[in-house]
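Following up on my earlier message about lysine. Here are the inputs again, as you asked, copied directly from the submission form:
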Amino acid sequence: MQLSDQNTYSIQNIDPHHFTEKFGSPLYVYDGATIRRKVQELQHAFPGINMKIKYACKANTNLSILRLMREIGVELDVVSPGELEMGLIAGYSASQITFTPSGVPFEEVREAVDAGAIVNVDSIPLLEWFGQTYGNTKPCLIRIKPNVAAGGNAKIMTAHADSKFGISVLLLDQILEVVKKYDIKIIGLHQHTGSDIKDAEPFLKVADILFETAKHFPDLEIVDLGGGFKVSYLPGDQITDMDLLGRKISERFKKFCSEYGRELQLWFEPGKFLVSESGYLLVNATVVKEDPARNFVHVNSGLNHLIRPMMYGSYHHILNVSNPAGEPKTYNVVGYICETDTFATDRTLPEVKAGDLLAFLNAGAYGFTMSSNYNARQRPAEILVDQAEAKLIRRRETLEDLLKTQTDL
Ligand SMILES: Cc1ncc(COP(=O)(O)O)c(C=O)c1O
Ligand SMILES: N[C@@H](CCCC[NH3+])C(=O)O
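Thanks, got it. Here's what our run produced:
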């Protein structure tokens, strides 16, 4: 969001108040130009490498976002049959979609394979089943757990020894035994370290582990290093230096390929990096309470719309779009849900009055997709601003939407 010299905010030169006047509040707003810019940033960071981006669409599955990704050459990583179906509806061919399950019923894997997607096998029992079911007739990747701890908080670290995800690299002998027993066609190795990782070092460490492991698999086409690049939640936050990381990984990848004897594809699966910054959750202040202990700003939203602050203690920057030049005051910004749904504690904002429009930044990833109907609240509408035009890409939910799956006894 840009702040002009006249102290007004805009997204692609449009005053955000226009969005809520037209589409209602609360409202998710995505800036298409930001998504395009982030994709380009990543595409340019790995010169001379056969690199593919597989957008981890759990971050944001709106079909219009998926279509935009497809148009700009980004493929897809999905974690459920639902996401797979959405990818197909958005126009992806199944071969552009990777299914990265985590302990799902094997029937879901069968559905994905039948549809033509490529599966990331995440356990020894699934590998056994895959071998028994398909022998060497269907290709797959194996999700390795490299036993490296990195990520913005403990809940989003997915590759340490105690994490549920993937097959421990310490079980390599067992993996090789099962692969040999069924002659399974392993075309790639995959790992995903976690989310919100700033430094190059953990990425390089897991890359080295995966490259070393890859030497045991002679028919690889792909090495998939997952996602997890850090974005800027706090103003001035250091983020992953993509150019530096790109250069360092590319160097090691080229060396690995020459040792391996063949040029492989290098895949990444970012979610946050591609869409977080593009998104805003616009809300209105409902009540401003000047309590003896502290000032509270209540908003017409809560953990039902943006759960990251409550689930991970995550920081989301907040702007007072209606009063950017107001006197600074300190508030707890809280939701309307009957839980302690605190968006921000002791946050200094330009003075907030009831009715003011506030914007939560970095709401493009894991915002709407992690939302719920708790307290029988409806989810917001979503709009995409692209080429300076705002389009409704999901209508606001109604009470009928909530009621329609219930049956009368
Ligand atoms: C397997 C896998 N790939 C990619 C991602 C995307 O992570 P991020 O949004 O941090 O890039 C995730 C989410 O944590 C994941 O579990
Ligand atoms: N949902 C997490 C990131 C992905 C975790 C799942 N592997 C977040 O909002 O930061």
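One observation from looking it over: The domain at 2-30+278-403 is CATH 2.40.37.10 (Lyase, Ornithine Decarboxylase; Chain A, domain 1). Hope that helps, and feel free to reply on this thread.
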